[in-house]
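Q: Got a minute? One more chain.
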Amino acid sequence: MKGLNGVFLIGLVLVSVVLLLALFAPFIAPYPYDRIDANAVLLPPSLEHPFGTDYLGRDVLSRVLYGARVSTIVGFISVAISTVIGMVLGAISGYFGGWVDSLIMRFVDVMLCFPTFFLILAIVSIFKPSMFNIMIIIGLTSWMTPTRLVRAEVLVIREQAYVLYAKVIGLPWWKIIMKHIIPNSFGPLLVSATMGIAQAVLVESALSFLGIGVQPPIPSWGQMLSSGKDLIDIAWWLTVFPGLAIFITVLSYNLLGEGLRRMLDPKEVEYAEK
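A: Always. Here it is, folded:
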């Protein structure tokens, strides 16, 4: 396939593995994630428990696999929210220009003035911590980058002949945006969304680590890191395996996003062909 590169293929394989593990966690996990065994407390990795057990005797491998489901759901839904908002605002801003563009872009600038993570912390502290709230909050606080990317694309696309022709024949502005502009600005948006999933996984893990993210008994990698940090001297597996899961997941989406960027960038494609 033209433009395929090693970075994209590695990212695609890793993302596919993470998604498959998350999807089939109930069938792959050797034990229920909430099964407590008082006779198997803090057991090191073994054939029976490949990732060991925690302070309640729960199987760490099972909890890591179910944690992949949490991270995947939070990542995809929060990015879907931010992408839709950014796509709409960016398209309107770039298409109309003038005071509409200035108003939307100044609002984007104001939002970017606030450190995103601390803004999320402030909002989460107001609402009850839950998986649903985390997805909504991350989505509603990370739409600024997609907005700017789409706007930049639209500023170029709106001058194309097919868009000008659509205006001449009297096609409504919303049809022009939906049929001609947004479909042709998907490239940078797809790259942004892919890397945004990695960022969402990190944010969810950080919030769960602080105790204001996904709440027990639902397993989360950040939550597992938090509960295992005090036992790291005697039970290293409680932090190592969830930490590796976060690292591999974030790395896989970043590699996939970087690979997509290289494939969709004409200069990168031209360089690869040479």
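A: The domain at 60-273 is CATH 1.10.3720.10 (MetI-like fold).
Q: Perfect, thanks.
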